[in-house]
Amino acid sequence: MSVKLPWKKDDDTHGDATTAPTAPSGHSDDLASRGSGGSGDARDAAGLPRGVTPKKGRPTPKRNDVERSAGTRRVHYDAPLTPKEARERRKAEKASMSKEEYKERKRRQREEAAAARRRANERMMAGDPNYLLPRDQGKEKLFVRNYVDSRRFAMNMFLPIALIVVLVMIVGMRAPEIANLVSLVMLFIIALLVVEGLFLGRKVNKLIDERFPDRAFGRWTIGFYAFTRATMIRRMRTPAPQVSIGDTV
Length: 249
Known about the structure:
single chain; mainly alpha; 9 helices
């Protein structure tokens, strides 16, 4: 019995691999058919293998470009790992400053936070997609806003009429007859405004079906969004109107 030396193991393994028995032809064909079938089943509807994400179609923006567009620049910061460590850092930072320096630092932080909120509000009012609220995001919502802002509706007086109804209910304690008459008139006007809102919802949904076949929002969502936009006074709308009355959308 010969002893196998360490440097001869590779040769033996190689030799065993070359002399290994081969599988029957029928068994190999079965494995090949299974492999081909498995690869076909592992593909999704887009024709890509499972686990492969399709390309976005655009390059990923660099962090520097995103920060420049937002008007902020990040610096290296080691975040505390625990709340206790965060408290200790705040105490140490406060102890390293004089009372005047600490007050000045807090004042500067408040001013920077207020400036950031002001900038975000300005960009949101201007319709910047990066600053819009989730309720206002989407190309369909943009079209609805422009469509409503370019036209006059009786619904624009919804809030003033609602305020008049509240005042009439308050004053009605002294003049019930007048209050009842005014209330009936106001209710009739509000019913007309609701009917106008229903027609507006149908109109904008029809236009969105024509312009955006792959719409991302339901008909009720778009109709209610148009109704709430039209019931707001023009100066109080958020985002601010980007078109003038009479413009073609």
